[in-house]
């Protein structure tokens, strides 16, 4: 850990417990800072609070005292999920106190170079792909951020021989000061989390944090097929490495129907790739570019491309049964993600969809329903999705109690060569505690067949 004493003697308020708050508190306390943790959750039965107190850390639970900032803190480190409208955050900013998320701590202490990966979609798949490429290539990667262990915990243990592959959300990137990844990846930019950020521009500016502190000694890999992302790329001081699906490009990484090209030269055949979908090809290009820049051997990259079939719950290939292939895309909690999933296949598809009713329209899916031969609808939006499917001319429409029931009803509708796809286009919270729980039930139901 570099600059281990940089927080020694500082007064730091950590706002919010959870994993990131506990990790940041422990790190800062061990570094000699005077740490106070404040969390709105009740005191009774709070095991995280008890654990921190056992280390000698001051913890205040049950709400945010009006005078909490009167103690004169040097820094506030907040949980990414806490909005900037929170009264403590508003007051801290008004007083000129820096407000960070824990990825800023990770950046300040890491001896290992950091690859920071963000995007509206695809960042988890890109992060996982790159991790496997580097791992097979003996580059000693460590995975961190949204997808893995809290970033500052990973950075605390990392050495110069490691590479940290860090998935960063817009929430985390809003709370940075000097965060500067050696390689930054921005997969794509679509409207998301507007309830948190307020506007599309504010969301995009938060994402731009992935590259805003980079210099000419760093690399910025970005989606050159999106004009609005190119606008932000133009502001970056890093060496720009665009990726594109529109045919061979003279610089960066690109692809056509036959090849992936690196700086305009053939690099690997598309036929090697196992992971389906144009959106996943974008993720592949981004991860491959980073792996090449980090000196990863081509054989290691090809090995991953020829074997990787998806992150769990994200276009995950589950099983082939009597010629029918099952894909778990439970992470598709909006129409944008389901649109990408449907576009990945050009064979007859039985679509399992539906979930929490947020008043959304499914109209965006209409151009992508041509290969859907049947729909099995679940959840609060089952009726609404069934009506939408009927308006698309789909004749076979069934209702199911849950995902397990949907699998049982979907299988008899298939013949060899068909695909059964769980891609709900809705959040899971009407019936499941998480999209992971929903996806796990799908996998279990497939295995029961």
Structure description:
It contains 16 helices and 20 strands. The protein is of the alpha/beta class and 449 residues long. The chain has three domains: 11-100, NAD(P)-binding Rossmann-like Domain (Rossmann fold, 3-Layer(aba) Sandwich), CATH 3.40.50; 103-305, 3-Layer(aba) Sandwich (UDP-N-acetylmuramoyl-L-alanine:D-glutamate ligase); 316-448, Alpha-Beta Complex (Protein-Tyrosine Phosphatase, Chain A). The strands form three sheets. The protein has a nine-stranded mixed beta sheet, sandwiched between helices. Helix 1 packs parallel to helix 6, helix 5 packs across helix 11 and helix 15 runs parallel beside helix 16. The protein is globular and about 70 Å long. The protein starts with 10 loop residues before the first strand and ends with a helix.
The radius of gyration computed from the alpha-carbon positions, rounded to a whole number of angstroms, is 23 Å
Number of domains: 3
* Coarse morphology: globular
- CATH H-level superfamily title of the largest domain: Mur-like, catalytic domain
Percent helix among the residues? 25-40%
Largest sheet: 9 strands, mixed
Identify the CATH architecture of the largest domain.
3-Layer(aba) Sandwich
Spatial separation of the terminal alpha carbons: 50 Å
Q: Count the E strands.
A: 20
* CATH C-level label of the largest domain: Alpha Beta
Count of helix runs:
16
pLDDT averaged residue by residue: 94
Low-confidence parts, pLDDT < 50 over ≥5 residues?
Answer: none
């Amino acid at each position: 850990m570099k600059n281990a004493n940089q927080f020694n003697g500082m007064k730091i308020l950590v706002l919010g417990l959870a994993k990131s708050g506990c990790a940041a508190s422990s790190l800062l306390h061990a570094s000699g800072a005077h740490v106070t943790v404040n969390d709105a959750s009740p005191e009774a039965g709070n095991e995280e609070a008890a654990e921190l107190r056992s280390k000698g850390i001051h913890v205040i639970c049950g709400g945010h005292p009006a005078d909490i900032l009167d103690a004169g803190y040097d820094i506030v480190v907040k949980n990414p999920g806490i909005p900037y409208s929170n009264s403590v955050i508003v007051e801290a900013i008004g007083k000129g106190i820096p407000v960070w998320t824990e990825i800023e701590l990770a950046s300040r202490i890491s001896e290992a170079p950091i690859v920071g990966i963000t995007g509206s979609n695809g960042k988890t798949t890109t992060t996982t792909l790159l991790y496997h490429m580097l791992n097979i290539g003996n580059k000693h990667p460590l995975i961190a951020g949204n997808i893995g262990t809290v970033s500052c915990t990973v950075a605390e243990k990392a050495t110069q021989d490691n590479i940290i592959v860090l998935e960063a959300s817009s929430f985390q990137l809003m709370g940075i000061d000097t965060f500067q990844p050696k390689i930054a990846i921005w997969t794509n930019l679509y409207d998301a989390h507007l309830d948190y950020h307020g506007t599309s521009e504010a969301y995009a500016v938060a994402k731009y944090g992935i590259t805003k502190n980079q210099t000419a000694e760093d690399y910025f890999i970005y989606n050159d097929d999106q004009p609005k992302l190119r606008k932000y790329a133009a502001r970056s001081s890093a060496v720009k490495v665009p990726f594109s699906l529109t045919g061979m490009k003279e610089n960066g990484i690109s692809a056509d129907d036959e090849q992936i090209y690196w700086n305009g030269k053939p690099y690997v055949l598309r036929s090697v790739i196992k992971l389906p979908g144009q959106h996943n090809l974008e993720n592949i290009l981004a991860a491959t570019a980073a792996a090449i820049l980090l000196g990863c051997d081509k054989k290691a990259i090809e090995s991953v491309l020829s074997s990787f079939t998806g992150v769990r719950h994200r276009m995950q290939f589950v099983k082939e049964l009597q010629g029918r292939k099952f894909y778990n895309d439970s992470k598709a909690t909006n129409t944008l993600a389901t649109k990408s999933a449907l576009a990945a296949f050009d064979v007859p598809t039985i679509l399992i969809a539906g979930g929490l009713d947020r008043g959304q329209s499914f109209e965006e899916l209409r151009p992508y329903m041509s290969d859907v031969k049947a729909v099995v609808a679940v959840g609060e939006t089952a009726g609404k999705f069934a009506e939408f499917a009927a308006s698309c001319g789909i004749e076979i429409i069934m209702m199911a109690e849950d995902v397990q029931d949907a699998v049982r009803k979907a299988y008899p509708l298939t013949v060899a060569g068909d695909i059964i796809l769980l891609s709900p286009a809705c959040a899971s919270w009407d019936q499941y505690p998480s999209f992971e729980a929903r996806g796990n039930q799908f996998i279990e139901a497939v295995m029961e067949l």
